[in-house]
Amino acid sequence: MLRRLHPGWARTSAMVLPYAESWSEANEAARTAGSGPLWVALGDSTGQGIGASSYDRGYVGGLRAWLGERTGQPWRVVNLSRSGARATDVLAEQLAAMEALVDKPDLVTLAIGANDMLRRTPPDRLHATMSAVLDRLPPGAVVATLPQGLGRTRPVKVNQFLARATTGRGLVVADLWGHTGPPWSGKFAADGFHPNDTGYRDWVAAFTEALDGRWS
């Protein structure tokens, strides 16, 4: 509720529908393209690029550009993230959509949990849901920690849980927490919550650090 009182909330929330429509069109093109490695992105509004100047200027667009440069191939992206999504939405909807794809993804990324912090999902319930999500991710999938700016105690505990839970599952951790610290000036959208183009570069840096060396 407090977020909706921010003077820039309406401007940022107006991005949700057009960005979702743009990704829907891009996803269809990726599904029908005949070649190129496939990346499936799971998550929330940050996966949609909300706060950036266009739908493909968030971390998904930035990381796709990096992947293309690193591998010398045009990557197909099926972006299954959804604004407002929580861990339960990934478990109930996004994973099933990924598993229904005809082509097996070459890369899967997951960035979720911010909305669980805002909605105060009980820790035990969140950990159980996240464990179920992690169990269904393929080996080599990249799981992002929670970024800074969501509080001081609960996000740290979630990140500690992720560090333990990803061990032994063959998953890779992208250290968003380590890449999103202050100074924060000039890194947020009009709502003061979502990253802008500059802020999303820190997210890209966290993912590229996690993936560096996979495609040398």
Structure write-up:
The protein has a single domain (3-211), classed as SGNH hydrolase (Rossmann fold), CATH 3.40.50.1110. The protein starts with 8 loop residues before the first helix and ends in a 5-residue tail after the last helix. The protein has 10 helices and 5 strands. Strand 4 (142-144), helix 8 (154-166) and strand 5 (172-174) form a beta-alpha-beta unit. It is globular and about 45 Å long. Helix 4 packs across helix 10 (197-211). It has helices at 9-13, 16-32, 45-48, 59-71, 87-99, 114-118, 123-135, 154-166, 176-179, 197-211, and strands at 38-43, 76-79, 107-111, 142-144, 172-174. By secondary structure, the protein is an alpha/beta fold. 47% of the residues lie in helices and 10% in strands. A 5-stranded parallel β-sheet has the order 2-1-3-4-5, sandwiched between helices. The longest helix is centred in the first third of the chain and has 17 residues, at 16-32.
Short structural description:
This protein has ten helices and five strands. By secondary structure, the chain is an alpha/beta fold. The protein has one domain (3-211): Rossmann fold (3-Layer(aba) Sandwich), CATH 3.40.50.1110.
